[in-house]
Amino acid sequence: MHTPLLIPLDSLHPVDWLLAALSFAAERHRDQRRKGVLHAPYINHLIEVAHLLWSVGGVRDPEVLAAAILHDVLEDTPTAPEEINRLFGARVRALVQEVSDDKSLPQAERKRLQEEHAPYLTPDAKLIKIADKISNVRSILEDPPEQWSDARRREYVAWAVRVVAGMRGINPALEAEFDRMVERAREIWQDLP
Ligand code: ZN
Predict the structure, then answer these.
(1) How many whole angstroms from 186 Cα to the centroid of ligand 1?
(2) Which residues are part of the catalytic machinery?
(3) Which tens digits make up the pLDDT trace of 50-96?
(4) Overall pTM > 0.70
(5) For residue 77, what is the DSSP state?
(6) How many CB atoms are located within 10 Å of the residue 77 CB?
(7) Of 74, 65, 69, 124, whose CA–CA distance to 97 is shortest?
């Protein structure tokens, strides 16, 4: 597969980390769209997750922001962990692996494991996962997947609430942003947990 950038990152400015991660993620996710009616390019989701960390969570660590941009690359594209290791280093690779599901497991099992493992993630992985859930719940509210029933949308939000519950106490601003999104969901589904 084409790799757009191979600049050694150890001596670069933090902006280089972000641009390199964006370049790599945009290339790997190039044929993917979000499931919503708008079919937003997948990269928009990755930008949103990093943007939430930066602007809401106050995260300034370039490796965490790069890992946020790359957080779905193992799960959703044919990318090997070693590639991330080579381009972005061991810490970014470890973070991306931490927030990736095991794709060999059935969907229901993967969701159950996310809930079970969330409290034991490292603090930086928790930040990425909370921002991911904010972005996903926002999509469910504003641009839901075409085929999803009302019940399935509600169930996704209820599950996200349970996953985030296991990661609280890490970044109050991000957690408040998640809660704000869930409040919006409660206007539709009053019986949410
Ligand atoms: Zn994601």
Answers:
(1) 22
(2) 75-76
(3) 999 999 999 999 999 999 999 999 999 999 999 999 999 999 999 99
(4) yes
(5) S
(6) 18
(7) 74
